[in-house]
Amino acid sequence: EVQLVESGGGLSHPGRSLTLSCTGSGFSFADSAMNWVRQAPGRGLEWVGIIRGRAYGGTTSYGPSFTDRFTIRRDDSKSVTYLQINNLKSEDTATYFCSRWVDAFDFWGRGVMVIVSS
Amino acid sequence: SYELSQPGSVSVSLGQTATLPCWGNNLRSKNVHWYQQRPGQAPVVVIYRDTKRPSGIPDRFSGSISGSTATLRIKGVQVADESDYYCQVWDGSTAVFGGGTKLTVL
Description:
The complex is a heterodimer of chains A (118) and B (106). In chain A, 0% of the residues lie in helices and 53% in strands. Chain A has strands at residues 3-7, 10-12, 18-25, 33-39, 45-51, 60-62, 70-75, 80-85, 94-101, 105-108, 112-116. In chain A, the strands form two sheets. In chain A, strands 2, 4, 5, 6, 9, 10 and 11 form a seven-stranded mixed β-sheet that branches. Chain B has no helices and nine strands. Chain B is globular, with a radius of gyration of 13 Å. In chain B, strands 1, 3, 4, 7, 8 and 9 form a six-stranded mixed β-sheet that branches. In chain B, strands 2-6-5 form a three-stranded antiparallel β-sheet, with no helix packed on it. The A-B interface holds A 35, 37, 44-47, 50, 61, 63-64, 97, 99, 103-106, 108-111 and B 1, 33, 35, 37, 41-45, 48-49, 54, 84, 86, 88, 93-100.
């Protein structure tokens, strides 16, 4: 059974950095393209970015709003993908989902909430 | 940057057919995917590659595309179908979501 579990969220302060983790199981993690998607309270889905699988060299791409302070990495030995957010802003307050891409965003984690507040 | 447009809300009577449109420039040249998101839950793919239905998704859900409009149809709408629905495409190496449509079942 495919499972994705996010962790690392919570309350953080403006200007700080935060790293979210997403642990996958039940599939070939190293071969999979992993994505992060953000959803602010009461708002729609925003694609943060993707880190491709080993056949594509683990390259990354980011949405237009996420090229500056956001970095996606992966550790295939642990089946984990990370989302680092630097210089946190109040507008980063959201639920962050990780999702696998295979013909669609076919599996999603439950999401992790990040609250940025002083 | 590429944009997808969806109506903010659609209402349909119980048992009727819901029609949810998604508009984008030259959409026919792209693969359109649809996601259902129930309140407080993660999204679930209900249609991928314009018309394909993942295993476990009822055949009441169908997708079509014509020109610049993709359409998600839900026949025999049930209370459980009341959700937000998002269309999504890839524009080059960037994933784009529509703003979402809230489906209300009357």
